[in-house]
């Protein structure tokens, strides 16, 4: 018997396994292919990450721009994680790693390769659940670094939004490469990779950027699965930690992992409330309203909506994007945007936010 069994060796599961091991808990990490590279590009605002070694950051952008109806300069530093080095940072020699599929998972047992393993607690961090949910999808290519100014990233560019609306996301990967993605922020069902690829190539042509590049990355994940119910503890995207209106979750998982590990070690009955405190649940509910507004807002209104968001004070933007337990601040940010909208857009937002 082990103290902790974590299912899923992605960033969230690896972070939790490392944090548990650091507290002296015997920990087993299970994944179908634990040595498989983390393929996705993980970006985050620097202020929302826990302390990390210098080499866990692949690139930094000190100038972060956004384009809606006009150009905006966003406050804060945006970073791209170095997947291999982050994984190395989260590895521990004392973690027992098993390659295999976990089946028949219960709060204290899991069957792996035909063998049942018993643990003080089992945590399912095996990735997002499947179902009919709103999805974020993206297709990206890597381009030479000189397509952006040094130290620059484009958080969102809605200038060629289209119908359904998509935006461009561009950020440095290292000193030599830039990732440019055409992204559908939220759609039900998620937009096809074929449509996103066509939009991306059209955007590259407008900017005069190289077109003869194969896909570097394809992204598809749900934004609004319900918070898990029942006795099994979940973590990461499996626990619906994905921000409903942005798709971000890795920084949250990295920050939350040590707190969850302490709860496992000291007060196991408080683990679920550590992951989903009352304030986090309330804030998540507001963010889901924001997602509903985006899903039902007319396509022509989306750039105007983000123009209002990027005009908000930097503090309100930061709270909405990154503070999952700040219910009051999130409500204030949403109310400020609503009040600043012209009457027709305000009516569209109100209708969209209350539509199911």
List the helices and strands and how they pair.
Blueprint (H helix, E strand, L loop, with lengths): L1 E6 L3 H12 L4 E5 L11 E3 L11 E5 L1 E5 L3 E4 L3 E4 L1 H8 L5 E4 L2 E2 L5 E4 L2 E10 L10 E10 L7 E6 L9 E6 L4 E11 L5 H15 L9 E6 L10 E2 L15 H17 L4 H5 L2 H19 L5 H10 L2 H9 L4 H14 L2 H11 L3
Parallel strand pairs: 1-2, 1-11, 2-8, 5-13, 11-17
Antiparallel strand pairs: 3-7, 4-7, 5-6, 9-10, 10-11, 12-15, 12-16, 13-14, 14-15
Helix pairs in contact: 1-4, 6-9, 6-10, 8-9
Unreliable spans are none
- Reading the helices and strands in chain order gives EHEEEEEEHEEEEEEEEHEEHHHHHHH
Shape-level CATH architecture of the largest domain = 3-Layer(bba) Sandwich
**Structural class given helices, strands, pairing?**
alpha/beta
CATH topology of the largest domain: FAD/NAD(P)-binding domain
At the fourth level of CATH, the homologous superfamily of the largest domain is: FAD/NAD(P)-binding domain
Helix content: 25-40%
| Strand coverage percent | 25-35%
Count of discrete structural domains: 3
Radius of gyration equals 21 Å
Structure description:
With about 350 residues, the chain is an alpha/beta fold. The protein has three domains: about 1-60 and about 80-130 and about 225-275, 3-Layer(bba) Sandwich (FAD/NAD(P)-binding domain), CATH 3.50.50; about 135-220; about 280-355. Helices cover about 35% and strands about 25% of the residues. The strands form three sheets. Strands 1, 2, 8, 9, 10, 11 and 17 form a seven-stranded mixed sheet that branches. It has a seven-stranded mixed sheet with strand order 6-5-13-14-15-12-16. Strand 14 (about 165-170) and strand 15 (about 175-185) form a beta hairpin. Helix 6 (about 280-295) packs across helix 10 (about 345-355) and helix 8 (about 315-320) crosses helix 9. The longest helix has 19 residues, at about 280-295. The radius of gyration is 21 Å and the shape is globular. It starts with a strand and ends with a helix. The mean pLDDT is about 95. This is Lycopene cyclase family protein. InterPro entries: FAD/NAD-bd_sf, Lycopene_cyclase_b/e. It holds the Pfam family Lycopene_cycl. Keywords: Carotenoid biosynthesis, NAD. Belongs to the lycopene cyclase family.
């Amino acid at each position: 018997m082990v103290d902790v069994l974590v299912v899923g060796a992605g960033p969230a599961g690896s972070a939790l396994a490392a944090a548990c091991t650091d507290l002296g808990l015997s920990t087993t990490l299970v994944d179908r292919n634990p040595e498989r590279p983390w393929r996705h590009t993980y970006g985050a605002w620097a202020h929302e990450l826990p302390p990390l070694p210098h080499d866990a950051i692949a690139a930094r952008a000190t100038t972060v721009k956004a384009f809606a109806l006009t150009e905006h300069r966003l406050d804060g530093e945006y970073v791209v994680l170095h997947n291999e080095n982050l994984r190395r940072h989260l590895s521990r020699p004392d973690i027992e790693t098993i390659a295999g599929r976990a089946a028949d998972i219960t709060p204290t047992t899991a069957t792996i390769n035909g063998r049942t393993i018993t643990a003080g607690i089992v945590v399912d961090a095996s990735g997002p659940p499947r179902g009919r949910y709103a999805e974020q999808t993206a297709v990206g290519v890597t381009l030479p670094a000189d397509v952006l100014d040094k130290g620059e990233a484009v958080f969102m560019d809605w200038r060629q939004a289209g119908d359904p609306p998509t935006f461009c996301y561009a950020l440095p990967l290292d000193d030599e490469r830039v990732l440019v993605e055409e992204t559908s922020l939220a759609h039900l069902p998620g937009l096809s990779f074929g449509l996103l690829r066509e939009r991306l190539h059209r955007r590259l042509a407008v900017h005069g950027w190289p077109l003869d590049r194969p896909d570097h990355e394809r992204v598809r994940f749900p934004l609004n699965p319900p918070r898990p119910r029942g006795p099994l503890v979940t973590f990461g995207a499996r626990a619906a930690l994905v921000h409903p209106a942005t798709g971000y979750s890795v920084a949250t998982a990295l920050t939350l992992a040590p707190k969850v590990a302490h709860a496992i070690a000291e007060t196991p009955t408080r683990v679920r409330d550590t992951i989903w405190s009352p304030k986090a649940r309330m804030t998540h509910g507001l963010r889901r309203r924001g997602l509903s507004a985006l899903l039902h807002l007319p396509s022509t209104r989306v750039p105007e909506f983000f123009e209002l968001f990027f005009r908000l004070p930097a503090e309100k933007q930061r709270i909405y994007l990154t503070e999952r337990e700040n219910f009051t601040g999130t409500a204030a940010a949403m109310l400020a945007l609503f009040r600043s909208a012209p009457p027709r857009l305000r009516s569209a937002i109100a209708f969209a936010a209350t539509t199911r």
